[in-house]
Design brief:
two-stranded antiparallel ribbon; alpha/beta; about 15% strand; about 40% helix; 14 helices; binds calcium ion; nine-stranded mixed β-sheet; Inosine-uridine Nucleoside N-ribohydrolase, Chain A
Amino acid sequence: MKKTLAILLTALLMLSAVSALADMSDYNIVTKADTHKVILDTDMGYFGDDTYALMILLQADKAGYLDLLGVTSVGANTTIAQGTTSILNQLEALGRGDIPVAMGSDVPVMGLKTETQMAANGLKEIRSMANVRKFGNTISYDNLGELKDETWGYSSLKPVEETAWEFMIEQVHKYPGQVTIMAIGACTNVANAIMQDPTFAENTAGIYYMGGAIDVPGNDTPCAERNWYYDPESVAICLNANFPVQVVVPHDISYHQRLTKDILDNILGGGETAYTKLIREYAYPRFEENPELRQRLWDAQVPGIFLVPDFISETDKRDIAMVTDLCYAYGESVAWAEGKGPDSSTLCTIVYDVDGEAYWNFVADLLSTEF
Ligand SMILES: [Ca+2]
C-alpha cells in the first residue's frame, strides 16, 4: 500500500514538474546554453531593474536557455564598490555563488569631468559621480564606509582577481563568436576591453545595450540618458567597434514598461522559489504600501528579448552616434534613419517596446519554476 502511494506521489510530482516545464515550452526561446553565452555588465543596486535582469539571466542559465559566464560591475547609477557588493549579496541570497563576479571601473575612460567643466556647460553632476569623486579608492566592496547598505550588509562571496575587461577578453577568446555582452550600465568596461584587445568586439556574438534616449528627452539632462551620460566616450568607442550585432534598448522603453503590483502578484502567484522569496521580502512591501506604484523599467527587458525576440513589439534600425564634445548635448545619442547618418555613426537595432503582458507572464513563469 505504502509502495503504491509512493509511486502515485512520484507520478504526481513528475506530472507537476512536466506541467511547470510545459509552461515554458509555450515560449519561442531561440537561445541555448551550448551556443549562447552571456556576460552581464551592470551598475547593480537592490531591486532596481538590474536585479530583475540578473534574476532572469540566472534562471535562464539554470534552465539551459543560455550560459551566464559571469557578472561584471561598472559605473553609472552607483559606484563600483557598492555595485559589486549588491551583485555578490544578491547572488548569495539566490544560491548562485557559482557565478563569477569581476570588478570593473566607475572612472570614465577619459576620467570624470571636473565640477567646473560640468557647471560651465550646464551639465548635471549625478550622485554616483559625486560619490566617486568624494570616496574614490577609500571604499571597497567589503568596506563601504558610510555608503554601506545596512539591510544587506556584506556577502561572504568574493569577486575574482581579474578586472571586468580581463574577464571579458578571456571569455570571448574561450568561446569565439558565442559571447553576448549585456551592457546595462556605463560602457567603461567594454570600452576598456576594446582598447586592450583590438580583436575583442569581432570575436563576440554582439552587444545589447541599455542606454541612450532616441525619441524622448534624456533622464539626466534634456539630451542624455544616465548609462550613456556617465561615460559618453566609452559609448563612442563601443559604437565604433566591429561588434557583429549592436542592439540598443533605450530610455524610450521606460515610458511604456513599468513594474506594478499586478505584475508582482502574478510572479508571486506561481511556485515558491528563491526568486519569489526574495521578491516577496525586498520588492513587494513597497507595492503593498502603495498599490499605485509604477516602477520604471529599463534593463529588465534586455535578457528577455535576447531569449525570446518575439516579445519585441516596436523596433527599428537607426544610425547612431554619440556626442562627446563638452557642451549641453554631451552624452546625447543622436539617431538617424538607416543610411542617413554620418560616416562615423553605426547602424543599430533599436528596441522601443515589448509586449509587456507576454513579457511579464514569461518572467513570472521563469522565476516561479524550479529548473
Ligand atoms: Ca543598470
